[in-house]
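Human: My hope is that you can spare some time for a protein that puzzles me. I am handing you a single protein, as its sequence and its fold in C-alpha cell form. Could you go through the record with me and say what the backbone is doing? Take your time, and here it is.
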Amino acid sequence: MLDDPGQPIVGALPERRVFEAAASWYVQFQAEPPTAAQRLAWQRWLDSDPAHLLAWNHLENLQRNLGAMPGDLAQRALASPRRRRQVLKTLLILGGTGYLGWNLQSHSGLANVWADYRTRTGQRKGIDLADGSRIELNTATAIDVLFDDAQRLIRVREGEILVRTGKRGDTRPFFVETAEGRVQALGTRFSVRQLPSSTRVGVLEDSVSLQPADPAAQSRLLKAGERADFSAHGVGPSQAYRAAEVAWIEGQLIVLDAPLGEVIDELARYRPGVLQCEARAARLRVSGAFRLDASDLVLANLQATLPIRVDSFTRYWVSIKHRG
C-alpha cells in the first residue's frame, strides 16, 4: 500500500500539497480496487475541504484528456512504493502544466495529434482516399496517408483500421505499415490493429502478404477468413477470422462464449478512464451483441445477468467484482 495519501511527499511546495494528496489517492486506487474503508476515507478527505474536491476534479479532467493513466505508468504503480512515487511526480507535472505541456514525444497518444487522420477515445469514422480506397478508423486511432507515384502507403501510428482498397486498375502497390512491419494488400478488405508489441491482421476478402520489419524474417500470405499476429521478427500461427470481429464499424461488439475479462478489455477501449475487472469475474463466460457507445448500459445489463457487482468509484473509474 501507499503511504497515507493525506501526507505529502517531504519537500513538496505548499501549493502542490492538495493536488499531491489527490494524486496519491489516484495511484493507490489505480494499483488495486478500493476497499470499503478506503472509499470512506477518501470520501471524508474529499468532503473536508473544497480545495480537495477541486484537485480531484482536476485529476478527472486529466483522465478525460488523456483517456487514462498511460499503461506503463499503471504498471509502475503496481511495482513498489518507490515506483509509485515516480508516478506521483509525473501526475504532479501533468497537474501543474496541463496535459498539452507534457513532452509530446514521450507519450504516443499526444504525439499522434500530428497524424493525418485520427480519432478520439470512443470515436469512429471513415475516410475516402483519392484512389477510391476507404479506411475505417476505430477508437483512439491515428494514421498517416502517403501516396506517391511508386506506392500507396497507410502508416498506422496507433489503433485499428479496416481497409477496403479501390481501383483494381491502379498498379501502385498498396501497403499498411506498423511498428512491426508491412502488410501488402493483394485483395480488397482487411483489418490491421497495432497492439502494444505486435500487429494483428485479419482478412475478410481475397488475401494480404505480411512482411515483418526484420529482413531475415519470412513473409506470410493470409487468405480470407484468416487472422495472424506478427512481430518485427516473425509471423504467428493463423487463426479463424470472422466478420463479427469488425462489427465495431457498426458500433457493436459481438462475442460468443468469450471470457468477461476480454469483453471488459474491449469495452475499455471505447471509454475514457479506468475500467477494471478482477480475476474471478474475468473468467465468467459471455455471449451477446453490445453497443460500444452505451458501455454504461452494457455494464448494467451484465450486472443484471451475471454474478458480478459493478462499482462506479467516479464516472471515470469503474471496477467489476464477482458477487458471492
Observations:
- The CA atoms of residues 115 and 144 lie 6 Å apart.
